Amino acid sequence: MIRILSTAFALCLLAAAPALAHEGGGAGGGLVSGFLHPILGWDHVAAMVAVGLWGAFLGQPAIWQLPVVFPLVMVFGGILGIAGVPVPQVETGIAASALILGVLIALAAKPPLWMAWIVVGLFAIFHGHAHGTELPEATSAVTYSIGFVVGTGLMHLVGIGFGLLARWPEGRIAVRAGGGVIALAGLGFLTGTL
């Protein structure tokens, strides 16, 4: 069963392409558009799943703290985007988030919790900025924001669910392999943004 889940997870990430959800004309607005934004962008999906996966891999209290830190700091990045404050290399930062988080999972990195908060928070700024730059174009900024926070949360939950396999030796291998797949996808996203 673990091999089937790992294979399915790997195939989904390998089939991913860089998100175009925050390029061009922007989202149409509203709850559904906000919800779909993080889910339709494979670079966002990889990073959001990685946050939940790493939190689960690190165990308590990271399993719930990292998926809380990310959206809180993402709001700050979103405010920067709405205010028009430039953040350099947003697309590169988003792509790097999948690469680096994937590597941390693959290497079974267990830094102090405060360091994990900083890593996750730093990447949340890039993801939030991408969302925030589209908020002014949305029909309803409030419902759009609720949508993308819920979509982000669901991706974190997917990562947590997969990460819970790390409770067993075979599952730990599958989780680390999943991190490797996320890192490879991140590398692909990164080379597409440079």
From TrEMBL:
Record bears the keyword Repeat: no
Pfam family, one: HupE_UreJ
Keywords carried by this UniProt record: Membrane, Signal, Transmembrane, Transmembrane helix
Listed transmembrane segments: 45-63, 68-87, 93-109, 114-130, 142-166, 173-192
Superkingdom per UniProt: Bacteria
Signal peptide: 1-21
InterPro entries reported for this sequence: HupE_UreJ
The protein's name in its UniProt record: Ni/Fe hydrogenase
Native organism: Minwuia thermotolerans
